[in-house]
Each structure stands twice: as structure tokens, then as C-alpha cells.
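Section 5: illustrative case.
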């Protein structure tokens, strides 16, 4: 896991530095330090994951997430054709509701765009008949994206929540939608 993860995150850090230099900003720019620190913290979070998810290709990652869904009692879990944001899974939750899961391995410095969240949520509900929508993203999820997900009752599973899921927390415990708050207390208590 270490080599490809280190390369991907190192590349992101290099891109941030080059963007800073190309912008002509002064060397006292506090934003560069913040971006560098964020890259270091993200690398530390990624190292905690119990499986080498960053070494998996897109299909392997989707199958891994499908396996977690099956482990937690989901039935009829299938991969369906996705779009450029990542692959999709469908299945039935243990309580009988139909779910659609979007898997995206993007791990750059830019967060998943709220527009992609809306597009996925709309398509999953209209075309796939999903009652529950979930986005599993290895990349960052910003405040705007969390608010968008909360309004739509779309569950976001970022690196921290994925780590918890991989270590045994059942999917049903992760399905509480985001509230849009940052920090450790991001999920609401309503379900």
C-alpha cells in the first residue's frame, strides 16, 4: 500500500507547490502551509486503513465495497455501469430498501464536487429506484458537499468512516446522513 499511496499523495503535494510557485504568490503565503499540512494529515489517515485500498484498481475497489455490503446483510449486490466519477453498486439493505452506492477512488486535493453528488443522487433514485444513496470517496469531502448530501439524505463515507466500516462497523450504523458539520461529530442522529 505504501508505495503507490505515497506516490499519489506526493504528487498532490508537488502539484500544490507548483501551483503556488506559478501563481507568483509570496513565499509567506499561509495557504501553501495549510495545503501541505492537509496533504500530510490525509496521508496519515490513509495509512490507517486496514486494507491496501489505494493499490486496488477501480473494479477491485468496487468489489471490495460490494463485499463490505454483503458482510453487513445486503442482498442482490451488483455492479452497474458508472460514470466518470466512479462505479456504482445496487442492492437491498437488510430492511428491504433498495440502495445505490457510488465508489470513487479520486484522492487528489480537490473535493468531490457537489454537482456530482446531485447528479448521482438524482440518477440513482430515478433510474435505479434507489431509496438510499451512498457515496464512498477516498478523496476529501468539503463542507459544501456535506451540506448538499445532508439536504438530499445521501450518506457520505469518507476515509475516516471507511476505516470504521472496514474494521467492523455495520453499514446500517453509517447510513445516517451528513449534517454538514465538520469535525468528528458529522452525522445526525436521525436515520
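Designed sequence:
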Amino acid at each position: 500500500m505504501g508505495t503507490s499511496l505515497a506516490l499519489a499523495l506526493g504528487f498532490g503535494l508537488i502539484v500544490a507547490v507548483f501551483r503556488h510557485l506559478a501563481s507568483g504568490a509570496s513565499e509567506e503565503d499561509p495557504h501553501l502551509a495549510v495545503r501541505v499540512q492537509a496533504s500530510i494529515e490525509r496521508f496519515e489517515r490513509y495509512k490507517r486503513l486496514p486494507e491496501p485500498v489505494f493499490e486496488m484498481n477501480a473494479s477491485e475497489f468496487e468489489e471490495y465495497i460490494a463485499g463490505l455490503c454483503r458482510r453487513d446483510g445486503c442482498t442482490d449486490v451488483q455492479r452497474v455501469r458508472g460514470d466518470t466519477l466512479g462505479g456504482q453498486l445496487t442492492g437491498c439493505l437488510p430492511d428491504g430498501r433498495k440502495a445505490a452506492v457510488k465508489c470513487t477512488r479520486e484522492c487528489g486535493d480537490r473535493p468531490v464536487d457537489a454537482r456530482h453528488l446531485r447528479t448521482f443522487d438524482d440518477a440513482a433514485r430515478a433510474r435505479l429506484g434507489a431509496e438510499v444513496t451512498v457515496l464512498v470517496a477516498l478523496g476529501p469531502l468539503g463542507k459544501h458537499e456535506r451540506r448538499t448530501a445532508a439536504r438530499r439524505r445521501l450518506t457520505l463515507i469518507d476515509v475516516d468512516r471507511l476505516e470504521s466500516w472496514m474494521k467492523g462497523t455495520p453499514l446500517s450504523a453509517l447510513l445516517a446522513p451528513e449534517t454538514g458539520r465538520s469535525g468528528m461529530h458529522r452525522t445526525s442522529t436521525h436515520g
